[in-house]
Amino acid sequence: MTKRLILIALAILVGISSYAYAEVQNIKVSGDIQVQGVSRAAFTFRDQEWNGGRAGGGTTNASSTDSFFMSTTRVRLDADLTDNVSAVVRLLNQREWGTSDSAENSEIDLDLAYMTLKEFLYSPLTLSVGRQNLRFGNALIVGDPDTNMISVDGDRFIAHTDLSSRKAFDAIRATLDYSPLVVDLVFSKIDENQLAVNDDHDLYGMNACYDFGVMNTIGELYYFEKRNDVLKDEDNKDDIVRTIGIRAQSEPIENLTLNAEVAHQFGHYTALVARYPNDVTGGGGLGGRIEDKCDPRDAWAVQVGADYLFADLQYTPGVSLWYTYLSGDEDEAPGTANGAYTAWDPMFEDQGGGKIYNAIMAASNCHLINLKGRLKPMDDLAAALEWTHLRLDKNYRFVAIGRQVILSGVAGNVNYYMTEKSHIGDEIDLALTYDYTEDVQLGLNAGIFVPGDAFIDLDNNACDRKATQIIGSMKVTF
Question: What's the predicted TM-score (pTM) here?
Fold first, then answer.
């Protein structure tokens, strides 16, 4: 696999060199290889099969333990053609071991492929075109093209899509640097769907960041619009999520960093597919929204956090406390809901990676409190202990046998049976990172999720199993 990646990278390198040899100033080859051993258990909170969270999970008395190895290999080429023109190509292979009979076992994906033109047309403008990473602020709104819970090509490459390394957008990004003000204008094609048909899924946006020059204080104002032409109501209105927000970050005293972000969503909501919180149709579905009807959106998100580093103490300990609020929608009887749809749409968030709750539920309808402590007992060893508390914003309505909810918001995923109570659960995670050399890093992550009273006992199959996860990793960077 590594030889194949190197050969492909060299072929691209030769191609670039032969095409633009007179202009090339510098070419850099880099990359990394990571191998992870993963063991997960009881992600359904009972003795039922998880199966990566997709349909087929939930078989009574089937194994609830999932153990596997996976590899992620990336090779990157950075070419500086002139002082103002550069290009980046990165190849990616991610696979689970023991899938040699799969056609995708050794398939190479184009992870990054974009060109950058500095001082394009006039000096403040930088233009980046192609498949590239987009990440703004703390990635509450934009960071991953399909949220941090699933993967663009996850079904094709790996079953456990929340562990995917694929984060790139097919996008055009124009950056206007009027220091201390930097403005980014973005367009991204999320999904083309059918050619020659108006059924695209697109992202438009603007992010303005201002550096105040005191106490490392920055302020951001942003607007992002997600337009889905596939989802239309009976009047042919598109499903549209318009998100406007502000974010501030500052260091009022040394080693203390404060963050605050508020965002509001408006636009059109169309109940046509299984999305969180599973309000599919009014007639035969489980949710209260009426099929083919378009309702206005009115959702909110708030995130505040503080990080403090005790730089003068032994082992340089640090502590972080964060709170996140993502609004939910009232869970009403089928076909009875009306008025504004108030559930937060996760947009393209990239938070909570590698956590158990991130694999189970979408970023919506919750209050999340996160407390984290970290220290460095040795120069090359870092340790972190993290506690996360989750509660529903809007409880589910009472149903005698339990309200079936696809917490992930992805059609076909595992159904959880919910009560009318709000406590989702608590998660504790321990992370150890050891720098074996400058180029080799070893990691160990262990987590346990204790479900709360929002989950119901069903058919004498108590929902009291604690979900656990252990991930060991080895990574070499070159």
Answer: 0.87
